[in-house]
Specification:
Layout: E1 6-12, H1 16-20, H2 25-38, E2 42-49, H3 55-71, E3 76-79, H4 82-85, H5 89-100, E4 106-109, E5 114-116, H6 122-155, E6 167-172, E7 175-180, H7 185-195, H8 202-211, H9 224-231, E8 239-242, E9 245-248, H10 257-268, E10 286-288, E11 296-300, E12 303-307, E13 321-322, H11 323-335, H12 342-389, H13 395-418, H14 423-444, H15 449-459, E14 460-466, E15 469-474, H16 476-492
Parallel strand pairs: 1-2, 1-3, 3-4, 10-14
Antiparallel strand pairs: 4-5, 6-7, 8-9, 11-12, 12-13, 14-15
Length: 496
Amino acid sequence: MSSDNKAVIIARVSSKRQEDEGYSLPAQKRLLNSYAVDKGLNPLKSFEIAESASKTEQRRIFKEAMKFIEDNNVKHLIVEKVDRHVRNLHDAVETNDWLMADEAKRVHFVKDSLVMHKNSRSQEWLNWGIRVVMAKNYIDNLREEAMKGWAEKLAQGWLPSVPPPGYMTVTENGKRIHKPNPDTARLMKRVFDLYLEPSQSIASVAQEMAKVGIRTRKGHPYYKSQVQRILTNPFYIGINRHNGKDYPGVQETFISKDVFDKVQKKMRRKTPTRYRKHNPVFKNLIHCTGCGGLVTWQLQKGRYYGSCQRKSDECRGRKLLREDAIEEEVARMLQNLVSPSPEVIEWVAEAMRTKHHDTIEDNSKLIASIEAQLGRIKRMDSNLYDDKLAGDISEERYTQKHQEFNQTRLELEEKLGSVDKTLSVILDKKLVLLELSQKASEIYAHKTPEQKRTIITKLFRKLEYTEGSVSVMYTNFSRAIAQNVTLTRTLLGGTK
């Protein structure tokens, strides 16, 4: 059978009632295998997602299936219905990306009588988008029911979610409650106390936590953003914060309100900023494409105008730039970074963490290997010197081998220096940028010129002046976010 006929089956039952009514996983598999036979397809493997699986486990199985598809160059994915395959928007985004990569790829929705591919008609893409949104709406309805249970738990003084570090979840009298974890509570208390030391910052606290082995539940080092969330979480003083609202809690606390308040005060502490009288937003940011020089700014009748002051032929006679017009373009591009689905952004952040964690692990193994080689070389060189002193080898032989060892040592040290040991820092910066991209549009309008310039330099690669207008270009990272947002909006059927 042709390799183009290779297929993978994903079977999913979304509720216990469906299992009881005969829509079991085995029933689905029989249906999907029968479809594959009728279409001349060759199912290599079936992936099963049961109702009892957690959200994390469901996501893991889905990712495992998509990885198997990529690794084995599978062209056909067979599922029962759209709402069996797509449980959230990032599943839809991932499926869409897979389809668009190759014209030969197909997703078969058997009961929907829908086969999607890169060149599907616009009506089929519309049908797909509508069904994706309907599937998400179904999940949202389930979530609404869950929220009723959450509200009741909050009213009783308990947080209906995973507690912060330092706590554990136990069952007492049939209820799941949060208690201080005897193994980690003292460590979290030390984190608060450490931050209050004059020389400490969030970054230095994160470094100290890594040094002493304080790690996340998944075994990863804490990033600055995670440390900040810990230090600002009122759960530690008996307040349950859920969906942006605070509720009185009944959990046992181990951080005093006095310490917590001092931490918040330190975080709010800012150095007063001194402003110049004339302070255009785009000072030192826009380059002229004609001569490469910076655009300079003048204040006229309460409005800033920019121009290139060089007298080259390319620049002479160019129109003045209005600051407010450029700000409108920047504001538009910032808005294009805002995803209509926070769920997708959360998924992107988790994917970044996973990817970087794997890379960090690979680098750590490489560093350990190089350091082991360096240790062997140094021991061999030391033994060689002992042999010379004992008269076991000639001076000439010693000099030759010593030079060889020294050259190898230098090469290994150079290789060690080239290994990137700052990936965790890079990840932390990317996560901050991702968070900034979602808030920048909202906060940009209310910031000072200095703060606006900071936002611009973080999210845009360059601004260029040409023929009376300015071209604003994203960084590679921002462009990837904008593309993700565009795709998400397309799948949702418009902007929110």
